[in-house]
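Before a colleague's protein record goes any further, I have to sign it off. Alongside the sequence sits a line of tokens, each denoting a local backbone shape. I want your independent view on whether this chain really folds as the tokens say. Where you disagree with what is written, explain briefly why. This is what I was given:
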Amino acid sequence: MVLLRPLLLVVLLAISGCSLPPFMKGSGDTAAASPTSRAPGSGPVLATPTEALPPPAGAEPAIDALPPAPLPRERPRTAPATLGPASKALVSQAQAQRKKGDLPGASVSLDRALRIEPNNPLLWIEMGRLRMDQRNFPQAENMGRKALAMSVGDDRTQSSAWQLISDSLRARGKNPEAEDAAAKARALVQQ
């Protein structure tokens, strides 16, 4: 449907352009602009197919002859996200710091890991969990949504991201939205 509009516009412009006399310099005499009284070399260089052959009577427009649009394909599945060795060591360090109550230290460790692998959704989920511990629930939700966008095709990681979003929403008292997010997390695990 989206491709039909530009195609229809092109066809209409071509048809309307064929019905107009060519532009000629001079006094504006319409008789001089008629196709029969053209001076050699003053007309269009190329003849359009609509001028050469009139459309047959009862012919359907070419727009209906377009093939149907292809159906959308399923998203390809990707391998589950993993942490590199350096990021894994920094996440382990951050988790130990969280257990000791050193939340600023854990944040520094996770920031370092994110500088190493900024497109790893597992790091964003871990940072979101740290934000939950810091009681920064809106930022935790944002980090879960960022991880969700980065993990298309990875059901396990997306399930973890939805669970983080659910926990953040529940902590802010948005229970219906939290239940929807938790249901999405459960549905991804069951696939």
Observations:
- The mean pLDDT is 79.
- The chain is about 55% helix and 0% strand.
- Residues 85-190 form a domain with the Serine Threonine Protein Phosphatase 5, Tetratricopeptide repeat fold (CATH 1.25.40.10).
- The longest helix spans residues 155-171.
